[in-house]
TrEMBL record:
It comes from Schaedlerella arabinosiphila. Keywords: ATP-binding, Nucleotide-binding, Transport. This is ABC transporter ATP-binding protein. The keyword Nucleotide-binding applies. Pfam families: ABC_tran (PF00005). Residues 6-236 form the ABC transporter domain. InterPro entries: AAA+_ATPase, ABC_transporter-like_ATP-bd, ABC_transporter-like_CS, ABC_transpr_LolD-like, MacB-like_ATP-bd, P-loop_NTPase. SMART domains: AAA. GO terms for cellular component: membrane protein complex; plasma membrane. One of its GO terms (molecular function) is ATP hydrolysis activity.
Length: 237
């Protein structure tokens, strides 16, 4: 049996702008297997970010359902959703969102501390080493390159041991070499720490690094990429 860690059912998100209805998502059945690395591509305005926000519990749908790790997000209240976001999901955005006054180590462990949990120092060090940031622990974000800052943001997303990582154009501010470096490391880290990744990108070359590419247009999936290479665990099951 397939094991879907993310499953949306007839997902719709409509925005009313005066007389006009913007159908950002228009009946989307988006499926991701456990530990899969999926790239979502599509033109500007096709609904990619909206989809990611729904899956990450950052926004609520107009209609339809979102299941993550067997739980229906629609059935969660505000507090449950906040806990879900803190524990189940790691977000990586285009602009890194690092706190400028905290050093890299402090930035990376901040979400765990804010969640009132004990920091697993050894795990944090392991991730930093994995992402080639061991030498930058004491550095403030401002002196790091874009690629290093994004790797720190990825370390921060992974350190709370979420089941899924949601990355919205994480290479949008990086050059080609840094982009490939960051996504290559993200992929290896996700494998190492057994996480599922959904990556939004405009960049076809970057998308090729994923296990599967899903293409969306006008709030609908137009290509599921099922012919693409599957992750080894899915082949085994
Ligand atoms: N809060 C909002 N109010 C009104 N319309 C919105 C809102 N958020 C998104 N939209 C519209 O929904 C559609 C999908 O937006 P979305 O940001 O998901 O697209 P995208 O594929 O991520 O685009 P991009 O690649 O440019 O980031 C667009 O037409 C956008 O203008």
């Amino acid at each position: 049996m397939e094991s879907w860690i993310i499953r949306t059912k007839n997902l719709k998100k409509y925005y009313q702008l005066g007389e006009h209805t913007v159908k950002a998502l228009d009946g989307m059945d988006f499926l991701v297997r456990e530990r899969e690395f999926v790239a979502v591509i599509g033109t500007s305005g096709s609904g990619k970010s909206t989809l990611l926000h729904m899956v990450g519990g950052l926004d609520v749908p107009t209609e339809g359902e979102v299941y993550v790790d067997g739980r229906n997000l629609n059935e969660m209240n505000k507090e449950q959703l906040a806990v879900f976001r803190r524990r189940k999901v790691g977000f990586v955005f285009q602009n890194y969102n690092l706190v400028p006054d905290l050093n890299i180590y402090e930035n990376v462990v901040l979400p765990v501390e804010l969640d009132g949990r004990r920091v697993d120092r050894e795990f944090a060090e392991e991730i930093l080493e994995f992402l080639k940031l061991s030498g930058k622990k004491e550095a403030l974000p401002g002196i790091l390159s874009g690629g290093q800052q994004q790797r720190a943001a990825i370390a921060r997303a992974i350190v709370s041991k979420p089941a899924i990582l949601l990355a919205d154009e994480p290479t949008g501010n990086l050059d080609t070499a840094a982009s490939h470096d960051v996504i290559g490391l993200l992929k290896m880290a996700a494998k190492q720490f057994q996480q599922t990744v959904v990556l939004i990108t405009h960049d076809n070359d970057i998308a090729q690094l994923a296990d599967r590419i899903v293409r969306i247009e006008d709030g609908r999936i137009v290509e599921r990429g099922e012919h693409e290479r599957r992750p080894s665990h899915a082949e085994e099951s």
